[in-house]
Amino acid sequence: MKLYEFGFTRSIRARWTLQELGVDFEAITINLRAGEHRSPQYLAINPAGKLPALIDGDLVLTESAAIVLYLAEKYGKFLPADAPGRAEVNKWMLFTVTELEQPLWRIAKNRNLYPEAQRLAADIPLAGQDFRAMAEVAEKHMQGRTFVAGNSVTVADFVLAYTLDWANEVQLLDRSPQLVAYMERMYARPKAPKRIAQLRAALAG
Ligand SMILES: N[C@@H](CCC(=O)N[C@@H](CS)C(=O)NCC(=O)O)C(=O)O
């Protein structure tokens, strides 16, 4: 199995799942800063030119949420056995990548990623507002809970905890003590990946 990844990007979600499963994998770095994701070789794997990508035999899989769900299905771990339990996992996974991640992505694009002349400074506080409104929903949900879906750890936790770390990096978790405590518990797991700040520092160094 091969994981195409880079630093602190969403590829962490896939790495986290592989590490928790204890599965052997070959990690292949695609240096986004050097533009390697736009090489013909990588575009043949993911025509969107984005990370992560997973290759398992004949299967070439992109989209971090799809990758973690595939791994959970394949190894029969980190997903509930019953349909309502799985539905809860899917719900929180989709909530994370649509309601929480998208405003964070808008902030990243308008701060750093779009060409300077196309950045919309005014969208940054709006996206922050959108994030906070949805974080409040998750904050209330996490009251008295250990995991986001059901009573045991699932792949939705790996995806959510990484996304909360991303939010923490842009100072959007200051009103969410339950989410901070949950994220820190998740990252304290023995097989958790490094935090975004550590990975960012390693790249800078
Ligand atoms: N929905 C995709 C998003 C992937 C994505 O945007 N990855 C970023 C890194 S976090 C990337 O590869 N960006 C390169 C680019 O957009 O040119 C997923 O979750 O896998």
Structural commentary:
This protein is α+β, with helices and mostly antiparallel strands. The chain folds into 2 domains: 76 residues, Glutaredoxin; 105 residues, Up-down Bundle (Glutathione S-transferase Yfyf (Class Pi), Chain A, domain 2). Strand 3 and strand 4 form a beta hairpin. Helix 4 packs antiparallel against helix 5. The longest helix has 31 residues. The chain starts with a strand and ends with a helix. The structure holds glutathione. Glutathione binds next to loops.
How many strands in all?
Answer: 4
Bound ligands, named by name, code or SMILES: glutathione
The largest β sheet comes out as:
4 strands, mixed
Q: Which overall shape is indicated by the principal axes computed on the Cα atoms?
A: globular
Radius of gyration: 17 Å
Determine the strand fraction and express it as a percent band.
5-15%
Short descriptors:
alpha+beta; Glutaredoxin; Glutathione S-transferase Yfyf (Class Pi), Chain A, domain 2; four-stranded mixed beta sheet; 4 strands; globular; binds glutathione
